[in-house]
Amino acid sequence: MTAMPDRTPDQITVAFHGTGSGQAALSWGQKENWSAIVAQNTWIPLGGVKELTPETTIEDIVEELAYLMGRYQPLRTRLRFDEDGVRQVVHAEGEIALEIFDTGGEEDPDAVAAAIHARYRDTPMDFATEWPVRMGLVRHRERLTHMVVLISHLATDATGAVTLMTEVAVRESAPITGMQPLAQAQWQASAPGRRQNEAAMRHWETALRTIAPIRFPPSQEPELPRYWEAEFESAAMLPAVHAIAARHDMESTTVLLALFGAALDAVAGISPVVVRPIVGNRFRPGLASVVCTLAQGGICVLDVAGLPFTEVLERARRAALAAYKYAYFDHDDMVELRARVARERGTAIDTGCYFNDRRSSRDAGLPVPDADLAAVIDTAAEPKLRWVLGQDEPSFEPLFLHVEDSTDSVRLTVNIDTHAISRQDVATLLQTMAATAAQTAVARS
Fold this sequence. Notes:
Blueprint: E1 10-17, E2 22-25, H1 28-40, E3 45-51, H2 58-71, E4 77-82, E5 85-90, E6 93-102, H3 109-122, E7 133-140, E8 143-152, H4 158-170, H5 181-188, H6 191-210, E9 227-234, H7 237-248, H8 252-268, E10 273-279, E11 296-297, E12 300-302, H9 309-325, H10 331-345, E13 353-357, H11 373-379, E14 384-391, E15 399-404, E16 410-417, H12 423-443
Parallel strand pairs: 6-7, 10-13, 13-15
Antiparallel strand pairs: 1-6, 2-5, 3-8, 4-5, 7-8, 9-14, 9-16, 10-11, 10-12, 15-16
Helix pairs in contact: 6-10, 7-8, 7-12, 8-9, 8-12
């Protein structure tokens, strides 16, 4: 990667104004993400680099940035820290800097854009004084070539980001009808909101009092760097998962969760398996397409030891429904609950095992399984596992499995703490998932 151009970028001050302002406690989704930001020591940026068409002008980007900041309350939200804790403060208007980096006509604009992205990503954010958005442009020989945009996960989750990108592309002007974070915080403090939270606390307390306090046996291979990321891809797994989903009339997400649970049981040997599925909460009234952060981790307890995989599927279906129902709660109350249960049990309860299906389409256009499914699976390329990143900070959860968008394979990203689970155990876990999927799919094909 090239270094940043050795010059101060030009800056344009972009003014914006929008509907709605005020302050409130953090919404439950904001609390969940703020806790991760603090724990991981990163502002958790979403976004990336976009190539621009030759006719794009600075005025076009200024207008786009002003549109984004004006339309979406979370983008014009800062945090206030006082004796009452952390509060969200939504501003009706303000200004934000748009940076323009000139290559001088000599440096590679692709590399300059990548360097800007890295600098934006790695520079800490002051949430009390900065807007949760960073935007920069690359100018090469008098023409704009790239735009770099990063938005903090505190402002939006992946589903909200899709809505944002869809609306900015057409400059949607219809009023936002969904519940913004200020309104979410108000509902969450109401009687219905407290009832939802209390039900979630009861569900969680039952789990925390009955599960084993550890998720993985002590790792025999703690490494330096400590935290690792892997990419796993299996072409055979895609038709296998789709066939299993069709046969059992369930979503592919549930099949993948069941495969993960069964593989965890085989590798870790701690029963029941406990997985925290990331739940988007978009099925709740008024939240379907709001640009904000709503996703929270539920808790899914799967007692699958010694069971055939067909029974694992049914248990995963039932457990997932309960996990989704109670994955909407006050993070502060959850911290207190966990501390209280840990005191009473005499040990902390580890739940650091996550599953996140972040595919944008999931089962849309699900292909019909091939008539000769066994041949398709047998002739598919061997699964590929690549360790792509090792670092000492920011930290990762003990085990976090993400399902990624892909049209021709099951593609997984895995983040681990090698002091909790070894890379070899993760490799075994992923291969077990793929093998179980293939065996189950062809058993009755």
